[in-house]
């Protein structure tokens, strides 16, 4: 038999479920009784099963057997790489100590830095892979992973390598973010400006090793000032790296406007964002990433300005912000529920926050975040009748089966 000179990629037909494609032209991008045709890693066709092209030749056919298919979830803000945990600090906060007091006394982020530096490469990778698997089981096919608990040239690089390894070991797309400007390491006590200078000098080496997709910072009175973040972001942009920022989480320090001046991909947290900040996001096309896990776990009461963000047309993404200090959750569906109950998002906005808008927050909106022809064949198939059920339950989640780049991934999770 002759082998054709150009083989078309494997074509597969999937049918037997409703689709929430997240195409913005109709609510949920809803297609009842839909079908998807994949070619290799990409989606080739999406529509009602009744409208499938006649005589379509496929290599494989799959029946979902009911349920709802959504784009693979995108967790666009996580700190998955760290050693130890902060359960003791949780107890202290419940007894009345504030997050800032604990941080100023050398606990908080800096205690996790010590535990991370003390962990072996193998232990760090193991712990991180374990967390990533939990996300994958709940439908996450793309995850952003920050460094930020190494805070030295070698330890930040180690954490970024672990993050990269997640994308090599698991069927997930990983975007790495260098968050050296998370806290001041003990070696630089009292010398924050020197630390920022050092960080700027470390960036090109990490970039040359392929470890950095973006640069992040913590702009806050207990962390770094807008002027310090400005210097770091100027260097990042000169290297061609996009930036994003932990901004206005505990106070309004103007980090959002600064990040927008550097064409930031996203500004994250935003509990204390003011009107000027909302307008800056809208003008720059920067995504607002809301993190209800941290708001809840810190027992915050200052709500992010959701109505103003909505009115200004700012895309709103959601993420777990998984980290040991302020958001030790690994459940995107719980975050969707909390975004609705605490922040008053609609269930549809919550799902868009973990798909279409999260893709934009990572600069991947042309490739991911919607079920449309040309995009990567990443999806989650849920045992529900309607997508509004995804944000409804909490503390338990519907069964979810994941396909990533056209391949079922259940076996790696067994
Ligand atoms: N804001 C946060 O909520 C996390 N990082 C940040 O900049 C907290 C990280 C931690 O407490 O370990
Ligand atoms: Fe964070």
UniProtKB/TrEMBL annotation:
It is an enzyme of class 3 (hydrolase). Binds 1 zinc or iron ion per subunit. Its EC number is 3.5.2.7. This is Imidazolonepropionase. It comes from Ideonella dechloratans. It catalyses: 4-imidazolone-5-propanoate + H2O = N-formimidoyl-L-glutamate. Residues 68-386 form the Amidohydrolase-related domain. GO terms for biological process: L-histidine catabolic process to glutamate and formamide; L-histidine catabolic process to glutamate and formate. Belongs to the metallo-dependent hydrolases superfamily. HutI family. GO terms for cellular component: cytoplasm. Keywords: Cytoplasm, Histidine metabolism, Hydrolase, Iron, Metal-binding, Zinc. It comes from the Bacteria. Its cofactor is Zn(2+); Fe(3+). Catalyzes the hydrolytic cleavage of the carbon-nitrogen bond in imidazolone-5-propanoate to yield N-formimidoyl-L-glutamate. It is the third step in the universal histidine degradation pathway. GO terms for molecular function: imidazolonepropionase activity; iron ion binding; zinc ion binding. The gene is hutI. It is found in: Cytoplasm. N-formimidoyl-L-glutamate binds at residues 149, 323, 325. CDD domains: Imidazolone-5PH. Zn(2+) binds at residues 77, 79, 246, 321.
